[in-house]
Amino acid sequence: MAAPTARSGPVAAFVRFVLCGGGVTLLASGVLLLIGHRVPFALASAVVTVASTVLATELHGRFTFGRGGAGWSDHAASGLTVALSYAFTTGALLAFDGLHPGGGALLRQGVYLGASGLAGIARFLLLRHVVFATRGAPRVPERPRRRAATMGSAGRHTAVPYTSAPRLLQGS
Q1: Is the Cβ–Cβ distance between 66 and 89 less than 8 Å?
Q2: What's the Rg (C-alpha) of the chain?
Q3: How far apart are the first and last CA of the chain?
Q4: Is Transmembrane helix found in the keyword set (predicted)?
């Protein structure tokens, strides 16, 4: 495996992940502001969430992880990571509300942001190492190839098979 470069290293990929995801989130919030009052808000939010997840998955496939466009299975797996993130942040808020009823808006916002940050890191790791992991050749060493050597003696050529290992040729 090649050593990570500045372009392919985990820190650079994480920066691209934050920029792509943050940009799509800002775009989605703007679209939600534009259409949220024209249609029921729950419907607008669901449509914007699905569309922004599809867009972010494409951007992550192409730019964040450099694997090219995302296929259907990539979109499904990415959608699953979004659902898991939603469940985690919602669970954190429900747990906070259960442990500290009336804990205050600022503290509640802190719990939400902390849970969102942890969910984002987990989502990055899942996308990098599972969804958009490079599927290269197996790391099993290649078997030595058999070649035929031509040995000549008094004008006669005879094919003798040998492997590519150099130690077999040393006595010739």
Answers
A1: no
A2: 27
A3: 36
A4: yes
Name residue 158's amino acid. T
The residue-averaged pLDDT of 78-91 equals 93
User: For the chain, what are the domain ranges?
Assistant: 39-64+73-99
Could you tell me the pTM of the whole model?
Answer: 0.68
- With the C-alpha atoms ordered 122, 127, 131, 136, is the resulting torsion angle positive or negative? negative
Handedness of CA 56, 62, 66, 71 (dihedral sign): positive
Residue 2 phi, psi (nearest 5): -75, 150
- Amino acid (1-letter code) at residue 136: G
Range of weakest confidence among 29-33, 86-90, 118-122, 149-153? 149-153
Look at the block and give the residue holding tokens 């992991």: 133
